[in-house]
UniProtKB/TrEMBL annotation:
<keyword id="KW-0949">S-adenosyl-L-methionine</keyword>
<keyword id="KW-0408">Iron</keyword>
<dbReference type="InterPro" id="IPR058240">
    <property type="entry name" value="rSAM_sf"/>
</dbReference>
<dbReference type="InterPro" id="IPR023874">
    <property type="entry name" value="DNA_rSAM_put"/>
</dbReference>
<keyword id="KW-0411">Iron-sulfur</keyword>
<keyword id="KW-0479">Metal-binding</keyword>
<dbReference type="InterPro" id="IPR013785">
    <property type="entry name" value="Aldolase_TIM"/>
</dbReference>
<dbReference type="InterPro" id="IPR007197">
    <property type="entry name" value="rSAM"/>
</dbReference>
<dbReference type="InterPro" id="IPR051675">
    <property type="entry name" value="Endo/Exo/Phosphatase_dom_1"/>
</dbReference>
<dbReference type="InterPro" id="IPR010994">
    <property type="entry name" value="RuvA_2-like"/>
</dbReference>
<protein>
    <submittedName>
        <fullName>DNA modification/repair radical SAM protein</fullName>
    </submittedName>
</protein>
Length: 489
């Protein structure tokens, strides 16, 4: 390991900004907050982190690690402890300086702050708490803050962090406990799910909703839940003396006499934008069905706002991980399919068991999950546009949430035809195989048959690959020309 001291702030920013790029769990904020007229900055629900607002604005945040030092040796992580790389850390004041200077220059609308684990989880988490405390209370920063919760940190530290952050996230890392045991042996489902449940209950408490017993913290694939609390407790404890185990400068000890029980912002809200998580896809052999089942359980059991999927990149060239000879080996298409399926589960009423099954465990490369489902369930089609209810319309390929709502509103005053649907925003190149208008399909030679529909939907560039691989058996297409799944799933 290379450790460098006396590094200037610009060089630290270069290193720790680059080190944060593999954490993708930081998109839209989902929260509005205006300052009281005395502070600096507002947080808008339209979102941050290089996403696009409803009015077309590109909005961004400062995305950094507090430190790239780490006591863990996760095989997939560029910051793992046995990597020979330059290590550095910010101080809480340095993060505040960067955030405020970038905000005043209108470079950012908020901060995404994650970290490697230095000394132990409690020390690291207390440093993050100190940072967000200073931003809110000393610098009166009213912009968006997304803060990473450190698995294994004490509950009072997680609670204190939640009083200052808009969103928090605890990365699941890998879909199963077996995957963690193989690639991240010092992490476990228990240390990850415990703060996730605490954040959920903190949100419920602030909204005066019933709390959930932490004993229910479980997910599919927990057959081998190796727990550092028992088998690896010495690993945590030996990295810092007992007297300092729960301490960091400023918040609990050192120059300040503040106590966590008295550290509270004025508005007293807890993680108002909810929590998210991230799973690495392709480092371990789980199927797509396994992954979407876990994501569905996370949404139901932990009330997450988002599950993010990160295509595995073998940044360490570790021969125990999947070999990637070039960028084409990175499973980006698989990541894209999972995001499409995730959108269907969150906004279209689909269940994971409808999209995949043990008999059909993976998404196909030729067709998106919604078209895949529709072609496998042609008994539900065609749908009459002028009579179908809203939830039936959502199941039609080419009709999104917005266009379904517009259809329901428009047909109150007139019978709709295909020209009307085009103006409304329906993607007719997919929808025409599954709908009728006033009892008629768009073309008289349309056939409600799997291979006919699939052949017509597949792009001309991929038709040859489809014909070679399918041998008259239904397969899926690629829809890379339609990334805007909000309006055209």
């Amino acid at each position: 390991m290379v450790i460098q001291y006396d590094m200037d702030l610009t060089e630290k920013l270069r290193i720790l900004g680059d080190a944060a790029k593999f954490d993708v769990s930081c998109s839209s904020s989902g929260v509005d907050r205006k300052n009281n007229g005395k502070g600096i900055g507002n947080s808008k629900a339209c979102g941050i982190c290089h996403s696009f607002a409803a009015d077309g604005r590109c909005i961004s945040l400062l995305k950094i690690l507090f430190t790239n030092e780490c006591i863990f040796n996760c095989r997939y992580c560029i910051n793992r402890s046995d990597n020979d790389t330059v290590r550095t850390s910010f101080t809480p004041e340095e993060v505040c300086t960067l955030t405020m200077q970038f905000y005043r220059r209108n470079y950012i609308e908020g901060l995404f702050l994650s970290s490697g684990i230095t000394h132990n989880p409690n020390y690291t988490m207390s440093q993050l708490v100190e940072t967000v405390y200073l931003l809110r209370e000393k610098y009166h920063f009213g912009g968006y803050i997304h803060l990473k919760a450190i698995p294994g940190a004490a509950a009072d530290l997680i609670e204190a962090a939640g009083m200052y952050a808009d969103r928090m996230s605890v990365n699941l890392e890998l879909p199963t406990a077996d995957g963690l045991a193989l690639l991240a042996p010092h992490k476990s489902r228990k240390t990850i799910l415990t703060p996730m449940r605490q954040i959920q209950n903190g949100i419920y408490k602030s909204r005066e909703l019933p709390l959930i017993d932490n004993k229910t913290a479980s997910l599919p694939g927990s057959t081998n839940d190796n727990t550092p609390d028992n088998s690896d407790s010495n690993f945590y404890n030996n990295h810092i003396s007992t007297a300092d185990r729960f301490h960091a400068p400023g918040i609990i000890s050192g120059s300040s006499t503040r106590n966590l029980s008295t550290v509270r912002p004025v508005n007293n809200s807890f993680v108002p934008a909810g929590q998210s998580t991230q799973m690495i896809i392709g480092a371990t052999p789980e199927s797509d069905y396994h992954i979407v089942t876990i994501a569905e359980a996370l949404y139901k059991q932990y009330d997450l706002k988002r599950v993010y999927y990160s295509a595995f990149v073998n940044v360490n060239n570790d021969d125990t991980l999947p070999i990637q000879n070039d960028s084409s080996d990175v499973p980006l298409l698989r990541e894209h399919r999972l995001y499409q399926a995730d959108w269907l589960m969150r906004f279209y009423g689909f269940k994971s068991a409808e999209l995949l099954s043990p008999e059909k465990p993976n998404f196909n490369i030729f067709i998106d999950p919604k078209c895949d489902w529709a072609i496998r369930h042609l008994e539900h089609f065609p749908v009459e546009i002028n009579r179908a209810d809203y939830y039936t319309l959502l199941r039609v390929p080419g009709i999104g949430v917005n266009s379904a709502r517009r259809i329901v509103r428009a047909r109150r005053s007139a019978k709709l035809d295909f020209n009307d649907l085009k103006k409304i925003g329906v993607v007719l190149k997919r929808a025409i195989y599954f709908i009728t208008c006033q009892g008629h399909m768009m073309y008289t030679n349309m056939h409600i048959e799997q291979n006919f529909i699939t052949n017509n939907l597949i792009s001309s560039e991929q038709r040859k690959n489809y014909e070679i691989s399918s041998h008259d058996t239904y397969r899926q297409m690629s829809l890379f020309d339609d990334y805007n799944i909000k309006s055209g799933v």
